[in-house]
Write a structure and sequence with these properties.
alpha+beta, 16 helices, binds protoporphyrin IX containing FE
């Protein structure tokens, strides 16, 4: 991992849009450049060869078509601050405490963090939002996981990814036509279908939203755990400090962004910092680097993107992590974790700490 951060530092120190012959793209690595390219009307997300486009076809994620403004508004209303507050009260807190108590058990066993915690909370949360019964957890997780493996690295099989996509389409269709009963207050039962052109548009959007939130939030849970044990002194002192908890989650997301970068394409030629950009040139926006930029402006965290394609699930992801942290801090002192923040991370475009284990303190002592 060290190498990557050093490369970002070098990119930033050039303080100009750097072109890489090898990767055939420009790099926007400072806060100023990242903010500019996220918001510029001269840039677009539309690009036929993006891996998301290969599996889902055109969705709001990788198209600037006008019609997706309405889609994002409708879907976005289920992920607003107000909606997420409601979810916290009705099921998020309960899901998290259930997952945590199943994971920790009697406190004697080593815990596979990803399998028992990180993989479970985001899937159970999104199923509850859609109104799908929790018994679909494993089915959904396995399909989404395969889809993500393809999106993260298109060298993985597109054919298998497509099979998984169709399995999810089938589940969603059965939920919407009454063959599988859903919660009448959930999103699937209440969704305004007028913004969707046809069945495929609806199913691909719903599946893309399921997928978009999963691996990113899983990676954040893993990073939160590692960061927590690397700062366990402060964490124990602040276990009832709401402000500290929120800031710690924000800092974790800023320092360990699940997505280090994303891409934009030049829509029409223009000049930026003396660089003539041509139509279809690629600009890689490196959020992980922008977050480390010590320049004051523009303020904020780039981990969720900016501008009109900014993450739709930011409130949900933050809420899951904050609620989890509040509950887990009570158990923090009972465990250690087998990783440190300086350890290398795995993943192609989604970066995560892998093979994490929580080890009961008594066991950890006897190992030495
Ligand atoms: C910590 C967790 C998450 C991170 C770090 C994250 C990060 C991002 C980023 C960087 C983008 C912008 C990509 C770009 O501009 O090219 C994005 C877009 C998106 N995210 Fe998230 N995300 C997270 C969780 C979620 C969740 C929980 C959901 C939904 C349930 C979600 C749904 C979406 C959608 C639908 C988009 C596309 C928005 C658009 O293009 O209009 N994300 N996310």
């Amino acid at each position: 991992m060290d190498k990557v951060w050093k490369e970002y530092e070098e990119l930033r120190s050039e303080n100009n849009l750097t072109y890489s012959q090898k990767q055939r793209c420009y790099f926007a690595s400072t806060k100023e450049d990242a903010d500019f390219f996220f918001r510029s009307e001269n840039m677009t997300v539309d690009y036929p060869f993006r891996s998301t486009r290969q599996v889902f076809g055109k969705t709001m994620l990788d198209s600037d078509d006008e019609k997706f403004t309405a889609t994002k508004k409708i879907i976005g209303s289920y992920f607003s601050v107000k909606a997420v507050k409601h979810y916290e009260e009705y099921f998020l807190n309960r899901i998290i405490s259930q997952v945590l108590s199943e994971a920790l058990g009697d406190g004697q066993k080593e815990i596979d963090v990803e399998k028992s915690i990180s993989n479970r909370i985001p899937v159970l949360a999104i199923l509850a939002i859609y109104g799908i019964d929790a018994s679909w957890e494993t089915f959904t997780f396995e399909r989404l996981y395969t889809l993500i493996r393809y999106i993260d690295n298109p060298l993985n099989s597109l054919e298998i990814a497509n099979k998984c996509r169709l399995d999810i389409y089938d589940l969603l269709e059965q939920c919407m036509d009454g063959r599988i009963s859903v919660n009448p207050s959930g999103m699937l039962a209440r969704l305004d279908l007028s913004a969707f052109e046809n069945r495929d548009d609806l199913l691909s959007t719903l599946t893309m939203v399921l997928t978009a939130g999963m691996a990113t939030t899983i990676a954040s849970f893993n990073s939160l755990m590692v960061n927590l044990y690397s700062n366990s002194g402060h964490a124990l002192e602040n276990s009832n400090n709401e402000k500290w908890i929120r800031e710690f989650v924000d800092q974790t997301l800023r320092d360990f962004p699940p997505l280090h970068s994303t891409v934009r394409f030049v829509r029409s030629p223009f000049v930026y910092k003396n660089k003539p950009l041509k139509k279809n040139d690629t600009v890689t926006i490196v959020m992980a680097s922008a977050n480390k930029d010590e320049g004051k402006k523009p303020a904020g965290n780039f981990s969720f993107g900016k501008g009109k394609h900014a993450c739709l699930g930011i409130q949900l992801a933050q809420s899951e992590l904050i609620l989890f942290l509040k509950q887990f801090l009570r158990h923090l002192h009972l465990y250690t974790v087998n990783a440190h923040i300086d350890d290398p991370m795995s993943g192609h475009s989604i970066k995560t700490f892998s093979n994490l284990r929580l080890i009961p303190v008594e066991h950890a002592k006897s190992d030495f």
